[in-house]
Amino acid sequence: MTLALSFRQSEILAIARSEGRVVVEGLAERFGVTLQTIRRDLTELAEAGHLDRVHGGAVIRTGVSNIGYEERRSLHDAAKAAIGRACAQALPDNCSMILNLGTTTEAVARELLNHRQITVVTNNMNVANILVANPSCEIMVAGGALRRSDGGLVGDLTSEFMAQFKVDYGVIGISAIDPDGDLLDYDLAEVRVSRAIIRQSRKVYLVADASKLARSAPVRLASLSEVDAIFTDRPLPEALLARCAEWGTAVHVAEG
Hints:
Elements lengths: L6 H13 L1 E3 H8 L3 H13 L3 E4 L2 E4 L8 H6 L2 H13 L6 E4 L3 H8 L7 E5 L2 H7 L5 E5 L3 E3 L4 E3 L1 H7 L4 E6 L3 E2 L4 E4 L2 H12 L1 E7 L11 E5 L5 E4 L5 H10 L2 E4 L3
Parallel strand pairs: 4-5, 4-9, 5-6, 9-12, 12-14, 14-15
Antiparallel strand pairs: 1-3, 2-3, 7-8, 10-11, 11-13
Keywords: Repressor, Transcription, Transcription regulation
Protein name: Transcriptional regulator, DeoR family
InterPro entries: Carb_Metab_HTH_regulators (IPR050313), DeoR-like_C (IPR014036), DeoR_HTH (IPR001034), NagB/RpiA_transferase-like (IPR037171), WH-like_DNA-bd_sf (IPR036388), WH_DNA-bd_sf (IPR036390)
């Protein structure tokens, strides 16, 4: 079904993509319309494939495909910038690192422009293009199949390339975090590369804004127990925070 979105429906969809979930009562109050009007909007958005209806509201439809790259790049800009700064501050001069795919790892790259004597290995063409502006950064770009949608390089050749390195830090992004701490993504080829990055890094840093806690994806990459630290923009749920403490996974909440 193709739906020509009204202004209100477009706004509802934007809120759902930003927050992960919308509630009927809150939307009715926000837009000054009846609960019945909002329910009708949500039903139409669900029938068009944009949302999944849940009790009392709706959630962004996930589990099949990721949000488009251009749309992801514009989402949660302030949070990603803060996370990028916090993570970059934990990466010293004179070190080696791998940065994988994702708009948040690109935010980390932007904060590395003044770092000295660093080596960055990446399968993210956008990261490489950002770091060209740092003359003190040696850039190693992986081979592999180019994913035109986001400038990512994936596939067996990319995984084999990553296996040639042993770096000080691996900085990875993710599409979703399950309540039990599992890290989830959509593309199995991308996940294989990220697993290789984890294996080849002495320390692993996860960069993920809080919206990832409200999403789901079908492919398991790893567990938070396998990373040394997570950099995010909001406190983790108490149960997950307690698990991170048990695992020895440091949690850094970036200030915007």
